User: Which sequence fits this backbone?
């Protein structure tokens, strides 16, 4: 996940940036609370620190959060609710912000660091909630899924990849694949909960199966509250029999039909987050080994209209 940039993929740079941040941060943290370093996985890469440089409890930097509850959402996803160190402060997060989690496996030389996106309302004091999809052999996701209420997690907070300005864009198009829904949900929630932000939102949410439609209940509630400003389109590549959702992946035809706003307008913005294959298809990938044009580029969207998390 990274800032607005040309279609050529710069994942390596993003990963290196996060790695460097992680290593520097980890060295500092190791003096205080045994937090550590390694490269996080991409869904792009992070930018600079979050708004005001504030983190849980109002301070930027490292924190240890206590898990209050862990709820199984479907067969591979959990919703983890953590207590902030200060129960009276909110997390101090801004739109498009994420935290870095740290853990050091017993048999590893280096710690595992990964970015995750809080999905609860920023104004809620005392808590951060993560929605974490577990990957087979996924080091961070398996660790997070193994946590029990009362266990603690070392985090660095917050970081941000895009500076959101209310009303900068008339039409905000969010394209999410699988667990890539979390940054989109955070952004959508923040826009709609801000009475001064009038941006219209179209969310295109692609998943493998019906049960992967996490946060559906919350998305439905937002759609009902904001029928004129939010529209969600679901597409399922392997739907159940009788499934009400569109069958298929995020295709050029789907994007052409559903994306809102003039293609060449500065008031139209597209945000994208999904698994690497989906991002490569929608955004393109240009690098040493591949040179693939993205669907958005084919449809006439300019690089600066697209932000890939
Ligand atoms: C800014 C940002 C915010 C993020 N927010 C969230 C979030 O809120 N919730 C969440 O669940 N994840 C989120 N991610 C992804 C998360 O950081 C990890 O990349 C993910 O949990 C996998 O890490 P792991 O250590 O478990 O897997 P790894 O040990 O790194 O990989 C294990 C296996 O899983 C596969 N794998 C890893 N990631 C993916 C993927 N995205 N799609 C398909 N296969 C994959 C790998 O190819 C490998 O085979 C975010 C990523 C970024 C960049």
Assistant:
């Amino acid at each position: 996940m990274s800032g607005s940039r040309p279609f050529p993929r710069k994942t390596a740079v993003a990963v290196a940036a996060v790695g460097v941040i992680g290593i520097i941060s980890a060295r500092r943290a190791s003096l205080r609370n045994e937090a550590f370093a390694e490269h996080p996985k991409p869904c792009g890469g992070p930018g600079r620190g979050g708004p005001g440089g504030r983190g849980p409890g109002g301070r930027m930097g490292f924190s240890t959060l206590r898990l209050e509850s862990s709820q199984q959402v479907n067969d591979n996803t959990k919703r983890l609710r953590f207590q902030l160190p200060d129960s009276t402060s909110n997390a101090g997060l801004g739109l498009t912000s994420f935290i870095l989690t740290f853990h050091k496996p017993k048999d590893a030389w280096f710690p595992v660091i990964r970015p995750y996106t809080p999905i609860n309302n920023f104004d809620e004091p005392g808590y951060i909630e993560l929605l974490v999809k577990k990957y087979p052999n996924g080091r961070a996701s398996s660790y997070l899924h193994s946590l029990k209420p009362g266990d603690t997690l070392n985090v660095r907070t917050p970081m941000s990849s895009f500076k959101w300005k209310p009303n900068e864009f008339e039409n905000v198009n969010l394209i999410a694949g699988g667990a890539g829904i979390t940054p989109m949900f955070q952004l959508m929630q923040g826009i709609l909960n801000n009475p001064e932000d009038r941006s219209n939102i179209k969310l295109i949410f692609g998943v493998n199966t019906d049960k992967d439609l996490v946060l559906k209940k919350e998305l439905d509630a937002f759609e009902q509250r904001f029928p004129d400003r939010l529209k969600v389109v679901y597409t399922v590549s392997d739907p159940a029999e009788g499934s009400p959702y569109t069958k298929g992946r995020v295709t050029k035809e789907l994007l052409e039909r559903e994306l809102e706003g003039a293609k060449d307008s500065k008031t139209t913005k597209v945000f994208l987050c999904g698994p690497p294959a989906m991002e490569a298809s929608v955004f393109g990938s240009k690098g040493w080994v591949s040179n693939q044009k993205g669907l958005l580029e084919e449809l006439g969207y300019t690089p600066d209209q697209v932000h890939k998390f």
